[in-house]
Amino acid sequence: MKFRTALTCIALSGFSLPAVSDITVGVTVSTTGPGASLGVHYRNTFNMLPKTLAGQPVRYIVLDDASDPTQAVKNARKLISEENADIVFGSSSVPNNHAIAEVAAEQKVVQIALAPMSLPPEKMTWTFVVPQSIPLMVEGVVKHMQASGVKTVGYIGFNDPWGDGIDKAFTALSGPANINIVANERYARADTSVEAQVLKILAAKPDAVLIGGSGTPGALPAISLAGRGYKGAVYGNHGMVNPDFLRVGGKSVEGLIAPTGPLVVVELLPDSSPVKSIASSFVKAYDAAYGVQNRNAFAGYAYDANVLLEKAAPEAMKTAKPGTPAFRAALRNALENLREVAGTHGVYTMSPANHNGMDARARVMVKVESGAWKMLQ
Q: What pTM was estimated for this model as a whole?
């Protein structure tokens, strides 16, 4: 896929609806608020996409949901009812994605979630998820802890579905690995201090601490732990791997270990990697547009969402025209039947029972060294 450095189309109120041959992609991401450090990278990718998709004219309507689930719902409804979107991409956080999923199911419009999320199967009919699942990535953390001899862990995460998801996955995997959770603390995304929670964790004297935050707010526990002189291992998750996390965390996040997609360390991948070619092309274009120092995992998730749509759209157009309920349904069916589609983060194989479709090929372990993410061998 070729790139352009200008935004394909940001629709403003007052624009007329597209011709029926156009594919309309609605996007809601958090470019302001606590999730902005992630959302701007999603937006950057949509700014680079070409004016056609699968040979059809396409327009991307990008809205800011300000890191607020209520605004994400308003945006999704606007994109579907006013802009006649064929599909909705978004958003940047798990709470916002959960909120959009309800609208997608109600309106029977496909949502491609840009943050990891999991709902009961009956609520995932119209929702597909691009990022790696939380259990898949936490499995990498547990394996690293086992290999490093970690026996006790203190957990601190967001008091929302993201923090709950990390906690649930780690609890399920740590028990069989003979790793004991000796402290479990939570904080809000907008909090400016976690000193009380960190003191409780330190009192439990864990071998390691796992942080269940994301974006720049995910750095807060690491900063507090470093300030208190904690010498054990600190682990993060794939919601943290971006330049702003390193900028905010500074020296306090040195040594932090986290799972992420192979895009982040694409130059170190073997040539046999199924994602190396597409990830290399994307990284080259993104680096050229925004600078090497801005490389991050989240821009790749936005690109992978478009890769899936590009693969599914031709099949959907065999039976229906964009802009119609029939096309929305056909698009959903086409996405559900994608097999071995390589993206920048992994290989996607969808099914009725699996609307994410990624496996261990989508995971590498990285460590912060000298202010940069380095791949662990």
A: 0.85
